[in-house]
Target: LysR family pca operon transcriptional activator
Amino acid sequence: MDRRIKFRHLEAFTHIARAKSLKRAAEQLHLTQPAISKTLKDLEVIIGKQLMDRGRAGVRLTPEGEVFLTFAEQSMQALQTGLSSVASIGAGGNPTLTVGALPSVASQLLPWAVQDFRQKSPGTVVQLLEGPHEYMTDRLRAGALDLAVGRLGRPESMVGLSFTQLYSEEVVIVVAPNHPLAGATQLEQLDGFPIVYPPQAAAIRPLVAGKLIASGLPLFNNRIESASGEFGRAMALGNAQAIWFISHGVVANDLESGRLVAIDIDMSATTGAIGVMARSEEVPSAIAHLFRQSLLDYVQRP
Model:
């Protein structure tokens, strides 16, 4: 951006555009009309385009002015949001940050990120909600969440949202260590046992389905569809001897401790992006920015 453009240029331009009058805009900003007219002219010289047509009936935006107004207003809004958010951090009153989390990130990424965030913003109350992908994205679009952390979903589920990738992970097939199929190497061997399978709302479902299709296999008839980590864990470890298709992050601690084992079947085709989601048309608050930075710090840690 041209460093000659100052806040006063954007302020004058947006006020003139709203008021459609140099005189009224000057009164709102407590300036003289020649002063605000010069500020507008200076901005046009810097940009190299005429932004407004002046006439007896007032001022009218040129096509270039229409384009510039959108971004000028966004810049003004972003600055105001930043100033308000920074002020709220030091002003007490315990601001709240509400974060949605898919189960795959709730056990590893979020505890570390929350602790780091609390050092950055000790007065902020963090509210965590866990659920499947579509539930979280719907809540995020509705404004009930400030951010959501989880897998990148299908394009139709990401409408109106931005996505910043943190890392990638794949789906694993896990069983109890003493399961008869603990040493299986082919998907065809899994039929005959209960299978805990991702439901329609889960971001990993199309990835798992794609793996089955590529292997020439139909959808398992003996599947039990659930996004609950506790249910899947209980089914895999209990008398049901279930086989569980699940994101690696959900069972990372179980695999590390040996409580569960991953069947040695290549699931690299199910690898997907894990990241932080926000409303694409909204400037994030200061505390949302700090939390996003804590997530990025987790990925970049030694």
About this structure: The longest strand covers residues 161-169. The CA atoms of residues 196 and 224 lie 5 Å apart. The chain has a mean pLDDT of 88. Residues 7-90 form a domain with the Arc Repressor Mutant, subunit A fold (CATH 1.10.10.10).
